[in-house]
Structure formats: structure tokens, C-alpha cells
Design brief:
This protein has 132 residues and is mostly helical. Helices cover 91% and strands 0% of the residues. It is elongated and about 75 Å long.
Length: 132
């Protein structure tokens, strides 16, 4: 039922955006942006539950919550980068869309640096114990 509601919101927003874009193109983009925000906000409860579940099982398995947080942060950055890039492209601004994508990649790399550092330190510690 949740998916039907989201699809309904998406279809209504699409039809309204198409209608308004014929009158004034900027209004269509704004309606598309608003519809996307409503759709994303409607699933935020499930995203929070998924995050809590992952953190709970990571703690139970002895895995650091920092790794799970890094993965979730990268997933969120990826989704936001993709959404922002598509909105820029829909607005006819391909060069801005490219800059949004590059910036998103840089931020994703920055988000995983702490986990990568820990992984490299663990790998070097293992190599030190194996070296004669």
C-alpha cells in the first residue's frame, strides 16, 4: 500500500509538472523538485528503521558502528547526488549536473576515509606479524 501511495504521488506530480511546463518551464521543474521531496520524506521512517536495525546487528556481531555509519552516509550521498544531478539535467544544465556528480564523488570518498584508514592500519598490523 505504501508503494501505491508513492507511485500515485509521483504520477500526480509528473502530470502537474508536464502541464505547468507547457505554460512556464520553470514551474514544471519546481513541481518536480517538490514532488521528489514529498516522495523522499514519505520513506524517511523506513530509512530510519533500516539504519537502527543495521546498527543493532553490527553491534551484536562485534562490528564497529563507524563502518555501518560510513556505508549509510555513502548511500545517502549517492542518492542525493543522483537526485541533484538529474534535477540539473532536467533543468537543462548539464554542466552543473556534472559538477554536482564530481562533488558527490569527492564527498563520498571523504566519508569513507576513516574506515579506509582503519582497514589500512589493520592490514599493516597483519603484515607486520607475518613478516620474519
Amino acid at each position: 500500500m505504501e508503494l501505491l501511495r508513492i507511485v500515485g504521488i509521483g504520477l500526480c506530480g509528473t502530470l502537474l509538472a508536464l502541464s505547468l511546463s507547457r505554460i512556464q518551464g520553470a514551474y514544471g521543474v519546481l513541481v518536480g523538485l517538490g514532488t521528489g521531496c514529498v516522495v523522499l520524506l514519505s520513506v524517511m521512517g523506513q530509512v530510519t528503521e533500516i539504519r537502527d536495525w543495521l546498527l543493532q546487528y553490527a553491534q551484536g556481531g562485534g562490528l564497529s558502528q563507524d563502518y555501518i555509519r560510513s556505508v549509510l552516509k555513502v548511500m545517502g550521498l549517492c542518492a542525493l547526488t543522483e537526485a541533484g544531478s538529474r534535477l540539473c539535467r532536467d533543468g537543462g544544465q548539464g554542466h552543473i549536473a556534472y559538477q554536482v556528480e564530481v562533488s558527490g564523488r569527492v564527498l563520498m570518498l571523504y566519508a569513507v576515509l576513516p574506515a579506509a584508514k582503519e582497514l589500512l592500519l589493520a592490514g599493516s598490523a597483519i603484515l607486520e606479524t607475518l613478516a620474519p
